[in-house]
Design brief:
globular; two-stranded antiparallel ribbon; about 5% strand; 8 helices; mainly alpha; 2 strands
Length: about 180
């Protein structure tokens, strides 16, 4: 076998592994977070930009995927159901934080206050575990002074920081608002 064929074969194998990982993650997202993903309020998050051109919906989905990847790569043995549900709901604040008129009526320091808003909104619609609550309320650590108290919350916090950075600098690009 010549070198070019070997390189093609390796590339195809990497692509297959990547595709299989994506399928496994997508399956887990549907299994544990299907009710959230298909809810009307979660769909409304497609209308608000989070970072760069990424919507809140796209950001939450990305954080959920990266949380599962991080959990698997580091063999952390997190509760996958809590990890998925907490990561999908971590930014469930349901408003456009760029809207200065709306924020004039609310606290202007979105980074400090949105975890509490997200938790209140999620609590109204879903039956949350203590781990899911910890993920939602503490994902902005160190802005939220009290650090996460469970593995799952640390994983989502790390995935959120990574995804936020990649979206802000334009590496992960969204498709803008979907109205």
């Amino acid at each position: 076998m010549n070198i070019i064929n070997m390189m093609r074969q390796r590339r195809n194998e990497r692509f297959k592994r990547h595709f299989e990982r994506y399928r496994r993650i997508h399956k887990l997202l549907k299994k544990y977070g299907g009710d959230i993903i298909n809810s009307e309020n979660f769909k409304k998050t497609k209308a608000h930009i989070q970072h760069g051109s990424m919507t809140v919906n796209g950001h939450c989905m990305s954080v959920a995927r990266h949380s599962m990847i991080l959990n698997n790569k580091l063999r952390l043995h997190c509760n996958v159901k809590d990890l998925v549900r907490g990561s999908l709901l971590h930014d469930y604040f349901l408003y456009d934080w760029h809207d200065k008129e709306y924020l004039a009526q609310r606290q202007r320091l979105h980074g400090f206050h949105h975890p509490g808003t997200a938790l209140r909104n999620a609590d109204k619609e879903y039956e949350l575990t203590d781990i899911q609550r910890d993920i939602i309320i503490k994902h902005m650590w160190p802005l939220t002074i009290i650090p996460p108290t469970c593995r799952e919350a640390w994983v989502v916090t790390a995935a959120d920081k990574y995804c936020s950075l990649m979206e802000t600098i334009g590496v992960h690009k969204g498709h803008g608002k979907a109205i």
